[in-house]
Design a protein that fits this description.
This is N-acetyltransferase. Keywords: Acyltransferase, Amino-acid biosynthesis, Diaminopimelate biosynthesis, Lysine biosynthesis, Repeat, Transferase. InterPro entries: Hexapep (IPR001451), Hexapep_transf_CS (IPR018357), Trans_hexapeptide_repeat (IPR050179), Trimer_LpxA-like_sf (IPR011004). This protein is about 0% helix and about 30% strand. It has no helices and 25 strands. The strands form 5 sheets. An 8-stranded mixed sheet has the order 7-10-13-16-19-22-24-25, with no helix packed on it. A 7-stranded parallel sheet has the order 3-6-9-12-15-18-21, with no helix packed on it. Strand 24 (about 170-175) and strand 25 form a beta hairpin. It is globular and about 45 Å long.
C-alpha cells in the first residue's frame, strides 16, 4: 500500500490491499482520505485526494478514482471502473466493470448500472460494456441503466427510471417506460456539493 500523504484514516475492520492475484499492484491512497469500517479495497486501486467511503463498501481492482469522491455505505464497484473528480455515489449502489463516470456526477441511493446484455448467455459473442456517465449527470434514487448506454453531459434521470438507450446532453429522463425530454432550466446548473465549492471557484460551470 502506498500513501506518502498525511490525513489518512483507515478504520478498524477495513481491509486495504486485498489481493485477488499475487501479482496485483498496490493501493495508492492520497491525503484527506477516510475508509470506514467494513470496507474492502482490493489491490490495483488508485484513490484521489479527499476520498471517503461509508461502511461496508467494496472496491475491486483496476479502479481509478479522482479527487473529492464519496462512495456510500454498501456500495460495490466491481473493478475496471474509471471515476473522475467531484463525484458522489450514495448508499446501496452497484457499479459493474467497464463503467466510466465523469466529473461532478451524482448517483443516488439504490442505483444499479449494468454491463451484461444477456446474463450468463451467449458469453462468447460479446464483451461486457458498462454505461458511460458524462460530466454533470444526475441519477436519482433507484435508477437502472442498461449496458453500453451513454448518458450525455448535464442530463438528469428521475427516480425509478430504467434507461435503455443513449441520452443526449442536457436531457431529462423520466417515467416507465422512460422517455427523454428537454432539461428544464432550473435543472441546468451542474452538480455541486457544499464541500466542493472552494475547489471549484475557477470552474466556468459553477
Amino acid at each position: 500500500m502506498g500513501t506518502g500523504e498525511p490525513d489518512i484514516e483507515i478504520q478498524p475492520g477495513a481491509i486495504v490491499g486485498l489481493k485477488a492475484k499475487e501479482e496485483a499492484g498496490p493501493v495508492v491512497i492520497r491525503g484527506r482520505t477516510r475508509i470506514r469500517s467494513g470496507s474492502v479495497i482490493y489491490a490495483d486501486v488508485d484513490l484521489g485526494k479527499d476520498f471517503q467511503t461509508g461502511h461496508n463498501v467494496t472496491i475491486r481492482g483496476h479502479t481509478t478514482i479522482g479527487a473529492h469522491v464519496v462512495v456510500g455505505t454498501n456500495t460495490v464497484l466491481e473493478g475496471y471502473v474509471e471515476i473522475a473528480d467531484f463525484v458522489k455515489i450514495e448508499s446501496n449502489c452497484f457499479i459493474p466493470t467497464h463503467v466510466k463516470i465523469g466529473t461532478r456526477v451524482f448517483i443516488g441511493p439504490g442505483v444499479t448500472l449494468t454491463n451484461d446484455r444477456y446474463p450468463l448467455k451467449n458469453r462468447d459473442e460479446y464483451e461486457p460494456e458498462g454505461p458511460v456517465l458524462e460530466d454533470g449527470v444526475t441519477l436519482a434514487a433507484g435508477v437502472v441503466v442498461m449496458p453500453g448506454v451513454r448518458i450525455g453531459r448535464g442530463s438528469f434521470v428521475a427516480a425509478g427510471a430504467i434507461v435503455t438507450k443513449d441520452v443526449p446532453e442536457m436531457s431529462l429522463v423520466r417515467g416507465l417506460p422512460s422517455r427523454i425530454y428537454a432539461l428544464p432550466e432550473h435543472l441546468r446548473e451542474f452538480n455541486i456539493a457544499l464541500s466542493w465549492r472552494g475547489f471549484l471557484k475557477n470552474s466556468s460551470d459553477q
